[in-house]
Design goal:
By secondary structure, the chain is an alpha+beta fold. The protein has helices at 52-63, 129-135, and strands at residues 19-26, 29-36, 39-42, 69-72, 88-94, 99-107, 114-117, 124-126.
């Protein structure tokens, strides 16, 4: 058996507490959330209800995100993994302008582990079932 010695952390030095804007896009459209006085609100819908814990869980998962398994290293055909039209695209932006983006595609086999990629890289990896569930949670 060969061991794999590469960093599994998807985002290096990403601070979830500094995120001020979170965009979630997918099959059901796009939601843009903005932190206002420490509370997440849907942009353009200030009275809409937001599941604050779900947003916190998404940001926590992003900050500690690790690839469970690397599936393809280079020039992965994104459509095979459901990543050419992601089930969910998440973009988080901090108050300093730093952004983190991840795309989630199909589930791997009969599991609840999503295929994922970073749009700035050409590899595809899977996420744990726990991270997948958090990142796909509904926020409203």
């Amino acid at each position: 058996a060969t061991a794999e010695y590469r960093k599994r952390a998807a985002f290096l030095s990403f601070d979830a507490a500094q995120v001020e804007l979170l965009t979630l896009a997918g099959d059901s459209g796009e939601i843009v959330l903005r932190k206002v006085d420490g509370v997440w609100k849907i942009e353009g819908q200030p009275d809409a209800s937001v599941k604050q814990q779900a947003v916190t869980d998404i940001l926590g998962a992003l900050a500690s995100l690790k690839a469970q398994e690397f599936v393809r290293d280079h020039e992965a055909p994104k459509e095979i993994f459901g990543l050419s039209q992601p089930k969910r695209r998440i973009v988080a932006r901090t108050n300093s302008g730093q952004t983190a983006e991840i795309w989630l595609g199909n589930f791997q086999g009969g599991s609840q582990r999503a295929y994922a990629c970073l749009p700035t890289r050409s590899d595809v990896f899977t996420l744990s079932e726990a991270d997948t569930a958090k990142l796909l949670a509904e926020v409203k």
